[in-house]
Each structure stands twice: as structure tokens, then as C-alpha cells.
Amino acid sequence: MKKYLLLGLLLLIGSNLVALAGVAYNRLNEITAALTLTERELQLPYNSSAQQENSGLSLQMVWRSPSADDEAYQPYNVKESRLSKEQVLALGFELPDERYYGAQSQPLYWALEFDGELHDAEVVKAELRYQKALDSYNAQPNEDNTRLKNDAFDFLEKEKLTNSRLFFVKAAADYQSLATEFAGKDNMIFVKGLAKAYYHQNSDSYGLSLNQLLVNRIMVPLADTEPLKGLSRLGYRDITAPRYSVEVNWGSRLEPWIVAVTER
């Protein structure tokens, strides 16, 4: 029994040392990106008070995929990206068809844009949606048009104040191609995420279903938790400016860590 306990202890120590070595390597080498995000992009957990008291606090990274140029504003984000047949193959997937709706998810390199043209475009679309609803209300101020006008106004305010400004731009099978394509853009980050290809039979088109980031939560160092104390996660209908800012670095393994948290 003691032999097995000792073996288990050695395995635990070994796995912890490997994890710590990975963290150290990520931080000691090249910093691939550095951004100051806010509550819009890094949200508190639902049980933030319990986390702070028990196991430490982590913030969830919130990202979005942009709506297509020919689409109207949609408040409910569908995390997909349109692809050509050639792009599906270049990402390393087998080509899906009507009998094979999607490949297995696989890790890819993602490029994400922060507070740039993609978010600006969503604000414009939200403004157009509100203006259209307002015109309908002015022409016929009934109960349905009142509700649509109010909803469109709330969506616009959320887009301006509360929604994440971190947008998926592109996926690639290798990091270097993304780093080269977006070189010089200081509002870009490169991360690893899971995705799978699919085929849409009705439109005879291909796409990429974006599942999740491989690292989607970032631990807050104990020394930086003070600005977050007493705060709860915002509800879906809450519309408010962010209450804190977070300086984040991404290292050579494309994994993030928090440098500082400040109250806004």
C-alpha cells in the first residue's frame, strides 16, 4: 500500500512540475500580445464570491464571431465562420458533405481582433436596426412596435457599453501564417481554440463551427483581486459600463496571464 501511495505522490509531483514548467516557459519567452481588456471581455463567474473565498478567482474570456457583411444585426451570436472548400481542406479537415455533417473538433490557431473594425461594424448594424424599429414605431405606434423599438434600443446600448469587443477573425493550421498576415496590428491576439468544419446542404456551403478556446479562463493573482471584491457577474439584461480593467499578456505558448486589475 505504501508503495502505491508513494508512486501516486511522485506522479502528482511530477505532473505539477510539468505544469509549472509550461507556465514558466510561456512567460519567460516572447510576449506575443499585450492588451488591456475590461469586464466586457473578461467576465466574473456566476459564483464569484464563493470562488474568492475557496479556490481563487478566474475570469472567463468572452469573444464573438462577426455577422456576415450581408446580414442584419443579430443580438444572439452564432459562433461560426463561412469557409470555401479550399479553406476547409487547408485547415486539415476532411471535406464534409450531406452525409457527413461535421468533422471531429480539432485544435487550430485563431486570430482575434480587439475593439477594431469588426466591433465598429456591429455598432453600425445595431444603429440601423434601432432606426428601422423607430421608423416603424413612428409610423404605427402600437404595442408590438413599441416592444421592438425598446428591444432594439437596449441591443444598441449593450453593443456600445457592455458586449465584448473581442472578435474572431480567422483560423489557421499554423501560428506563423497568422502572425505574418496580421503583423503590426497591436489589437490582435493569437490563441488556440477547438473548431470543426461542417457542410450546409440548403446553401451548398461550408463553414467552421467555433467551439471554445483551449484556455478560456484566466486566474486572477491573489494580489489583484481587491478591485473585484463585492462584484457579481452582470445579468443578461444588465446594461452598464465595465467596472474594471485587466492588463493581460499572452506568451510564447499563446496562453494568457493577468498582469494587473484596476477599478474603473
TrEMBL record:
UniProt cross-references to InterPro entries, sorted A to Z: DUF4824
**Per its UniProt entry, which superkingdom is the organism in?**
Bacteria
Record-linked Pfam families: DUF4824 (PF16106)
**Name this polypeptide is given:** DUF4824 family protein
Source organism (scientific name): Shewanella piezotolerans (strain WP3 / JCM 13877)
